[in-house]
Every structure is written in structure tokens, then in C-alpha cells.
Amino acid sequence: LVIMTTLPATALAEIAQQLTTGGRGILAADESITTMSSRLEQEGVRASASARRDYRELLLTADGLSTWISGIILCDETFGQDLADGRAFPIAARELGVLPGIKVDAGTTALPGHDGALITEGLDGLAVRLASYADRGAAFAKWRAVFDVRTVTPYSAAANGHALARYAALCQQHAIVPIVEPEVLCTGDHDLAASATATRLALSAVFTALVDAGVDLTGIVLKPNFVTPGLDAGDVAPADIAAATYAVLRESVPDEVAGIAFLSGGHPTARVCAFLRELSAIDERPWPVTFSFGRALVSAALHTWGGTTSEVPAAQHVLLQNCRNASAAAEYAA
Ligand code: 13P
Fold this sequence. Notes:
This protein is α/β, with parallel strands linked by helices and 334 residues long. 46% of the residues lie in helices and 14% in strands. The strands form two sheets. An eight-stranded parallel β-sheet has the order 1-2-3-6-7-8-9-10, sandwiched between helices. A two-stranded antiparallel ribbon has the order 4-5. The N and C termini lie far apart (52 Å). Bound molecules: 1,3-dihydroxyacetonephosphate. 1,3-dihydroxyacetonephosphate is lined by residues 28, 144, 181, 263-265, 293-296.
């Protein structure tokens, strides 16, 4: 039995606006069990359900987090865990002024016949899972499609666009705001133009599919990559990154989209904040822009903590500093 809570479109739009305006952004803390475990091990912390829980509790309970952070994306494991004080993560998040979100895709697999291109899975049974997450307090969800500039094709963009559109429509049916994340990876040595071409292809396929599926664009958050050269290519000035990103978004993203929250994609914190600052300075933008960073907010905090309880306050301090800097970038007006 699937129980659906129909929320008026305006309520979805309000949540999407709450997530992306006011200088606040979204903290992506939804690494899969495998990814989180390997990041813990890299810092010398033995990976376990309780270590992953302790680390996510450190993030969520950093004092004053909601000043800079509107929402936190959790994975299924954390969503079902409790803080040390016994409160479930999604309940505690709401009490701390941070909307709880849930990553609902099941990761990527090879797209047959498309030479290295990936398709994101997880649609089977999604309606039932969304109903359960909504019951347990989820305000929003996330689904990530992944593209590589070397392997993206019109078909892989359309196939992932179709999956994102089915996911987004199901979310809205369950009163959950979908974060629509088509990520063009920045691994490699490609130039700015190659990233722009791939990002344009991905975004236009995604919006064609969203419109065809009847998704209400005023009730979604788009989570794209910045258009940048590959991490192994030479640096480009942040103002040029922002101009290239804005040009691609302007061509591909309808004005009604509630807000845009960028991923960090492996770029260093200071650089990705500079990209966001330059982009928010473009004042003719039709949509609010903010951050939905993972690594750029948390990597230094994880390193500082290293599994040592006495380092929790220092780690939280580092996290809050990054959140404050990202927030200042999102609010920057030239
Ligand atoms: P990064 O900012 O570390 O790229 O993570 C954001 C995210 O949610 C990727 O899916």
C-alpha cells in the first residue's frame, strides 16, 4: 500500500526556496556506506556503523549550523540512525533548523553499448521508499546522474534525464522536493569548452525529460557542476568559470526553476567558493544560486576529527568556517 500525501505545488516551491535562498546552502553528507567507510579509513578511523554515525552527528550538531545550512542530505543508513541523545537524525535535523533530505538513487552502472557511459539506477520500488521517507520526515531527496566528458552521448544524457524525470515526478507526488543532480565530472585534463559542451548536453536532455514528465519546475532544486576545465588541466580564473557556467545554465535551465545549488566535485574549498562568488555577482540571474557541497565543506573537518572525541569541537569549528565562507560566496553581490 502506497500512501501519498499530496502537498500543494506552492508548498513544494516554498521548501525549494527555503533550501536555496537567504545565503544558506545544503550540506551533502550522503556518502554511501562504501565511500564513507573508505574516507574514514583514509583518516585512520576504523569504519563501522557507529563511526559513520558519530561523524554525521559531529556535522549535524555543530553549534549554529543552521545559520549557514538550510538542509542536510543523508544516506539511508544515517536517516535510520539516532543521535547519542536518542533522537532520530531526521527529527533532530528539523529541531536544529535544518531540513532533512535523503539520497534515493542506488548508484551507477555501465550503460550497455555506450562505451563507458553510466546510468543511475534505483527507480524500482522508489514510490514505496519515498512514502516511508516522507513519513519519517524527509523534506527533500537527491538523485545523482554522472557524466564524463569523454563518454557522454545524446543517448546517455537522454537515458539519465528520463530516470531523473521519473524520480522527480515521484518525489513531488510524495510531497518531497527533488534535488535533480546531473554531474559532469571534472576528473581528466579536458578544457573549459569540453566541460561546457558536455554540461549543455546533459542539462538540456534533463530539462526536456522533466518538462515531458510534467515535473513542476518551481518545486525542484537543480544541483549542477560548475563548468570548469578538468582537474589535471591548467587553472582558469574564477570569473571565467562563472561566465562559462552562467552561459550554459542560461541556455539550458528554464527561469521557473526554484533554485540552483552547486556541487563541489573535488575542487578545493577556496576555489569552489570563488566560483560561486563570481556567479552570484551576475545579477541578471533568474534563479537563486547557492551551494550543495560535500567534500568542500567536510573534508577538513573529517581530517581534524580523525575519530578522536576530544577533537570534535575543533572539527566542528573547521566545518562551520567552511559553511560561513560558502554562504558569504552565495550572498555576494557585486
Ligand atoms: P561534492 O561537493 O563532494 O562533489 O559532493 C556533492 C554531492 O552530493 C555529490 O553527489
